[in-house]
Task: structure prediction
Amino acid sequence: MKLPIHIASPAPNNKQFFMLAGGLILVLAMAGQILWPTLALQFGLLCLGAVALISIGIAKHLEPAISIKLTENSIRYFHRYGQWKLDWRNISRIHIPRFYHQLAHREISYIGIKIDDLEAFIDNVSPRFASRIIHEHRDILALAISQGDINMAQAQINLSPFKLPSGFEIKGPLAPFFHQMILLERLYGAHLFIPFSGLTMPPNDIINQMNVIRKMR
Result:
């Protein structure tokens, strides 16, 4: 297996189309307001639609082109608001988490990763990412609530300092992120979650590649 492996993100797709289409429509709408002043309102609405298209294109441009980078020593996950990095030696399990519903096991749409040593992970996650991801993972907690695994109070963001087994306390934006990781690990056996929507490859293929590299270390 040739390393590193880069797994592209679908988020930036069609960014040029949205920006070009929006720019063209904006020019035509502005010209229409000048040439046909009686239709100024209609062309004004068209301008708003064009600006919306341009905004979507800009947002897509800001998204990282790569979702996951696999190297000999680590896995790195890229997000619009930051990233995290995890050494293979600090991973105990990679899987698609499941839950039990109507007498059958069902998968959630994430790749789950279980960490061995949380303290070794502290310096490898950006605080900006941590602040964002605790909100993006509310859908997982909503699932747990709907299944009766936790209640609303347990799903609330915990702003108190997070204390590690060594006695070290994590404060600031990382604290609620670590509290949430512990809760999610208890519920679904994983601390970190990578959404299927951010992948351009089948999740099971990615997991197989990850496990092959991990076992080589």
